[in-house]
Structures are given as structure tokens and as C-alpha cells.
């Protein structure tokens, strides 16, 4: 996790240095996006998401960079067959850091794109994070654009999972930590600069 964080910081630093050397600013690119993730599968809770990504625009088509996010989930419980939730978490906030590859298919005012993010969470005992999305880039001027996308994400999150009842006469039970997949459909609106 520390190596990935160091890699993210080095990429951002390299982009800032190369931007300072290029007066036209064509090599540095930044993205900020917000959205909502619609949970599916066993963990169907939704999440509010804010991500920021910074990196190098190699040409009008290919961008590579790194970023960080803030993912907030209002509830972290799965329903069980009784009043006891099967899986719970006390933390409602996760912070991922990730590498990002973004590819525009054309260089017109309106361009379809594909975007991939892969990384890890730096909070709540870590866990893998990846997101693949497709969308449309709408240029507002030569260096800025609005991005709209839909995608799919998988997050490996640690939950306290129901283990067993302690005896048959009471409702006392134990829990154990377990990493589970939390999957979702992602909806994003972003600003590119």
C-alpha cells in the first residue's frame, strides 16, 4: 500500500514538473468527477463518490495518471433472515488511491471514451478497488471538457460477518472479520482541465 501511494505521488510530481517545462500545458491533465454508485449483488448499498485524477496526456487520445477518491456509504449492513444483519461495518467512508488509464476514441468536440481505474483503499484495512467505465467527453474549449460516464466497479471491503450463536437459549452471537466483494454500477459527471 505504501509503494502504491509513493507511485501515485511520483506520477503527480512528474506531471507537475513536465507541465512547468511545457508552456502550452498540453502534457498535464486533471480530472474531477462526482457521482453515485448503485450497489448490486449481496451488498446493494449505494455510495456517493468524489474522485480526482492527475497525470500526463500523451496525445489527444491517451492519458495515464493517478488519483484518490472519497467514497461515502450511508449504510453498511446486509439483511439477514432475522433482525440480525449478516455483515456490518462501523466506518462509512473509504479512501482509494489508484492508477488511471483514459482513452478518447476521437478528438472532436464530442468524443466517446473508455476509462479504467485500479488501486487499493488506504482506509479500513485496505482492499482492492477497480472501476471500468465508458462515456462521452464534451469539450468546452481547447483544454477543458465535461465527461459523463457509466461503468462497473468492484471493491474488496472488510466487514464484521455473523459467525454463530453462542448458545441455543439466547440471541448472543459472535462476528469475525471477513473481506467481501462490494460491486456496483457507477454513474459519473466530471470536469477535465
Quick gist of this model?
This protein is mostly beta strands. Helices cover 10% and strands 59% of the residues. The protein has an 8-stranded antiparallel barrel.
Task: Explain what the structure shows.
- This protein has about 190 residues and is mostly beta strands.
- Helices cover about 10% and strands about 60% of the residues.
- A hairpin with a 6-residue loop joins strand 7 and strand 8.
- It is elongated and about 70 Å long.
- The chain starts with a helix and ends with a strand.
What attributes characterize this protein structure?
193 residues; mainly beta; 1 helix; 10 strands
Poorly predicted tracts of residues: 15-25
Structure summary, number of beta strands? 10
- Cα Rg: 20 Å
Any idea what the shape is? Answer: elongated
SSE order, one letter for each helix or strand? HEEEEEEEEEE
Average pLDDT metric: 81
Strand content: over 45%
Question: In terms of topology, how is this protein built?
Answer:
Blueprint: H1 2-21, E1 28-40, E2 47-57, E3 62-72, E4 87-88, E5 93-94, E6 96-104, E7 110-121, E8 128-139, E9 145-165, E10 173-192
Antiparallel strand pairs: 1-2, 1-10, 2-3, 3-5, 3-6, 4-9, 6-7, 7-8, 8-9, 9-10
